[in-house]
Specification:
alpha+beta; five-stranded antiparallel sheet; binds adenosine monophosphate; binds zinc ion
């Protein structure tokens, strides 16, 4: 857990561009944006992936989606957006702390590659 990149970002040990924070959730801009607006939303507890969501920690996931709606309003993402969770190797997950990408301000292709 001490080695987790996103835990370090939440603690402020690694800098990030914060866009939203509350008791449960931290959100910051992605360092390698894939859309004109690209934020990463993480729970303030270490959950390694979607595989680890359970009845004890799922409140954090609910709070993330509440944050999505608030961020979308604050950022005026009225044309829409996409929320993405990559899980595991085939899902393309590269950081082992569950996170949700919030992508917007361009037309997003479907299905994704
Ligand atoms: P994933 O590939 O789904 O695990 O997403 C990890 C995301 O974290 C990628 O989009 C990276 O660009 C992003 N990322 C990695 N390191 C940082 C960082 N220090 N600050 C902001 N975003 C980061
Ligand atoms: Zn972590």
């Amino acid at each position: 857990m001490n080695d987790c990149l996103f835990c370090k970002i939440i603690k402020g040990d690694i800098p990030s561009t914060k866009i939203y924070e509350n008791e449960y959730v931290y959100a910051f801009l992605d360092i390698e944006p894939q859309a004109p607006f690209h934020a990463i939303i993480v729970p303030k507890t270490h959950i390694s992936s979607a595989d680890e969501i359970n009845a004890q920690n799922s409140i954090y996931i609910a709070k993330i989606f509440e944050a999505v709606a608030e961020i979308a309003k604050a950022e005026s993402l009225s044309d829409g957006y996409r929320v993405v969770n990559n899980c595991g190797k085939d899902g393309g997950q590269t950081v082992g702390h569950i996170h949700f990408h919030l992508l917007a301000r361009r037309n997003l292709a479907w299905p994704p590659g």
